[in-house]
Amino acid sequence: MSLEKLLQEDYGTTRRANRFYKNQMLDYLNDMMMEFIPRQEMIFVSTADMKGNCDCSIRVGRKGFVHVVDQKTIVYPEYRGNGVYASLGNISENPHIGILMVDFYGSTVGLHINGIASIENEFDCVDDPLAERWVKVCVEEAYIQCSKHIPLLEPKDKKIVWNTDDEKLKGGDYFKVQSMVEQ
Hints:
By secondary structure, this protein is of the alpha+beta class. It has a domain at 26-152: Roll (Pnp Oxidase, Chain A). Helix content is 24%, strand content 30%. It contains six helices and seven strands; from the N terminus they run H-H-H-E-E-E-E-H-E-E-E-H-H. It has helices at 3-11, 14-24, 31-36, 86-93, 167-170, 177-182, and strands at 42-48, 54-60, 67-70, 73-78, 96-102, 110-120, 133-145. Strands 2-1-5-6-7-4-3 form a seven-stranded antiparallel β-sheet. It is globular, with a radius of gyration of 18 Å.
């Protein structure tokens, strides 16, 4: 028995969890999920290396930057970043991935997608000149993130400068790490 199931027993939530699994969790994307995904402008990506060291990153793009290939497959672009490749490095070691998409501006509902990721240098059916490479995700689980604790936000205009090395536009030394190192 998995630790997840053991904790459900210990905390008395087995019945509620089983109802959630039965009523909310799929091993594919249904039509509503496939309509939800292209409307999102950001996703949160969680990966871990072989030792279990985790990384959670945000990916942002224009609506439709995450593409639904079919009920079992999505792809998203990797744009130019800081060059660290924490997520891609983890995927290279351990292909398990968790993605959370949240509609902060409308329904305040989220969609979890867990699956197996691979790094693709090209993806023929999608044209995005900013993409340096693609992450393809084979869906193993898809389920709702309920809206009860998700805030409703209001979008504001912000000029996005893609693929920049301008430190000010990237946030500079906001947390004063460089200042601490220099001392």
